[in-house]
Write a structure and sequence with these properties.
Uridine Diphospho-n-acetylenolpyruvylglucosamine Reductase, domain 3; about 25% helix; Enolase-like, domain 1; alpha+beta; 5-stranded antiparallel beta sheet; binds flavin-adenine dinucleotide
């Protein structure tokens, strides 16, 4: 779509180029920016010219550049380097997207939109990822993704701040994971995405996304039984957190979340 109010398109080459004023938006893959009118924008600042390496692995885990594409992160599943490797493609495939979006959309763009159906949010939340944010005054800050996404299409980014990268700790990469997605139609946008992660020490994390306004990570010291699981879901995820929209009603989402969570506990037991 033509963005007819935009009069300047700059490709950033260095951090000093990341200077914004009201009416400026950063461009990752542009798949959302160019998909609907943006009458409040006059300038676009493209992050892809910064040349950030998409993926960097070391003994602590992996650093994913915000500009890493969905296609690049899905390919991590082919590496077989980690027990949790299948989760990358499973989450990438949960994005309702054509091959054009798959090739262009970035992990950072998906996190910064902060839509409930953000499949990269599901992935990073399930693996206890943290995000690195660059502030316009030259300082950096890091926070868990669970704190970054604060609501439906809402996050902790301040004016002019850039999401630089995402870190996934090796502890999560070495874990066993189980993934469930449900939608109202076979190719529909996610109504609920539930992911279980069982770490090598037996601790268990259940992450609920898409069904709720923000990610919920429930932590257990072992796989819970059905009673404990049901009680924890009821206690930790308040009823108003479940969404009603075109992709599902809140009561359906709440019910299927419980069913999928039970399946995951069985699978990882
Ligand atoms: C047909 C179709 C289907 C889609 N399906 C889904 C879906 O199922 N789930 C879903 O969540 N989304 C969906 N989207 C929306 C969107 O395509 C994806 O969320 C995609 O991952 C966004 O990434 P992007 O790099 O293209 O973001 P962009 O369009 O480049 O940017 C999105 C927003 O994030 C900001 N931004 C981007 N990168 C950064 C950064 N590093 N730091 C700070 N701000 C940044 C931009 O300024 C903009 O406000 C869909 C879009 C289309 C057109």
């Amino acid at each position: 779509m033509d963005l007819h109010t935009v009069t300047d398109y700059t490709v950033a080459r260095d951090r000093v180029d990341l200077v914004t004023e009201p009416g400026t938006a950063f461009v990752g893959g542009g798949t959302w920016l160019f998909s609907e009118p943006q009458p409040h924008l006059t300038r676009l600042l493209d992050l892809t010219g910064l040349g950030w390496p998409a993926l960097t692995a070391d003994d602590d885990g992996i650093e994913i550049a915000a500009t890493c594409t969905v296609e690049q992160i899905a390919a991590l599943s082919d590496s077989g380097m980690w027990t949790a490797a299948p989760l990358f493609r499973q989450c990438a495939s949960a994005l309702l997207a054509s091959w054009k979006i798959w090739k262009r959309a970035t992990v950072g763009g998906n996190l910064c939109l902060s839509f409930p159906a953000g499949a990269m949010i599901s992935l990073v939340a399930a693996l206890d990822g943290t995000v690195l944010i660059w502030s316009p005054d030259g300082t950096d800050r890091r926070m868990p993704l669970a704190d970054f996404v604060t609501g439906s299409a809402a996050n902790a980014l301040g004016a002019g701040e850039v999401l630089r990268s995402i870190h996934i700790p090796v502890r999560s990469l070495e874990a066993r994971t189980a993934f469930r997605k449900i939608a109202l139609s076979p190719l529909g946008r996610s109504g609920a995405v539930v992911i279980g992660r069982r770490d090598r020490d037996g601790t268990f994390v259940l992450t609920v996304t898409a069904a709720t306004d923000r990610p919920y990570a429930l932590r257990f010291d072992r796989i819970p039984g059905p009673g404990e699981l049901g009680n924890t879901l009821r206690e930790r995820i308040p009823v108003p957190a479940y969404l009603t929209d075109a992709h599902g009603a809140a009561d359906w989402r709440r019910a299927v979340t419980a069913v999928l969570a039970g399946e995951i506990c069985e699978e990882l037991s």
